[in-house]
Amino acid sequence: MLSTTERTRLNRGKAKARTDRGELYDLLDEGLVCHLGVVVDGSPRVLPTGYGRIGDTLYLHGSTGARSLLAADEVCVTVTLLDGIVMARSGFHHSMNHRSAMVFGTPRVVTDEQERWEGLRAITEQLAPGQWDVVRPPSAKEMAATRVLALSLAEASVKVRTGPPSDEESDHATPIWAGVQPVRMVFDPPVTDPALVHDLPAPDHVLARVTRDEA
Amino acid sequence: MLSTTERTRLNRGKAKARTDRGELYDLLDEGLVCHLGVVVDGSPRVLPTGYGRIGDTLYLHGSTGARSLLAADEVCVTVTLLDGIVMARSGFHHSMNHRSAMVFGTPRVVTDEQERWEGLRAITEQLAPGQWDVVRPPSAKEMAATRVLALSLAEASVKVRTGPPSDEESDHATPIWAGVQPVRMVFDPPVTDPALVHDLPAPDHVLARVTRDEA
């Protein structure tokens, strides 16, 4: 269950709040980019970045020199998956079918080397599943240059909009087309690094990710 | 030209800052969702929302009752387009090819009715090009329920990462595959609202948006 706090309560709009923690996990596991919100000198800053999840913890990473992750201040991490463009009979009811998660909290700077390793593994695997075990693991120097943050999923909300437009009843008789244009992200066949020295094929786990449309 | 301020200067990372204002426009015009960062009671909040652009102004809208847009406080609007998963020979150099724009400023609450109308038109057309002129326009009641904000693009930065992995020279001889898996968003054929009273086909401007892959 996702508990409700003042800022995760959703009062407005057609998008429905979900309270199933499994939906939060599924959404986070499907996403690739999160938008990390921080306050710097009183001003908001929103940065796109990768992330990974292990259980009820979200891992983020950055350079030890990155200003936005210098202090373990309060953050808001938002992951949004766009599913469709909702085209209504009225301009007012145009909308997006989407799933979004917001996570609030103050991340912990991870110091335990084992957890730092597992966090970085989760972040890499979120981006490129199957890669961690086949690539060169981080060196001591690379580990030292990387800050790993852990954010609890204790305070999180999930918002989902699905389905057809929510037009006014009075507009239904109007002869205007209405519907949803589905939107999705696809993975295309991999492009090998032109600098590759060896004549190696892309690994199966990469090829398996290529989107194949049912024709 | 995009002018550089302290917070739009990019000091780190392989992603390159761009200074061409045309690149900012192109990126914003291609995106569908922005992530709006605000500070509420000292805490960051990041909300996915639609937007539209007219010249050097970004328009946002919300319900007049939405707490996050109550005051015209400072915001950061980030638009991120993901182009590919960068798979390196080392875990450390895994990355994302992406284009992202960050816009900083204090939005103006638009009060002029003509500008409010044009702003809403831009937001709707960004989401669903061609729809504004064929759907029922906003009623006086709907206009009254909608807050339109205008954010100047004066303080903005664009960051772009393209190309193959940036592996260490010392890793190049390693027999590990490396490359990029392209990622893109596709529009599928529209799904008509089951509640449509008239037997109307989806309009041409909607069908024209459907992604057609070269087979």
Automatic annotation (TrEMBL), chains A, B:
Pfam families per UniProt: Pyridox_ox_2 (PF12900)
Superkingdom of source: Bacteria
PANTHER family named among the record's database cross-references: 5-NITROIMIDAZOLE ANTIBIOTICS RESISTANCE PROTEIN, NIMA-FAMILY-RELATED PROTEIN-RELATED, FLAVIN-NUCLEOTIDE-BINDING PROTEIN
Protein name in the entry: Flavin-nucleotide-binding protein
Organism name: Nocardiopsis metallicus
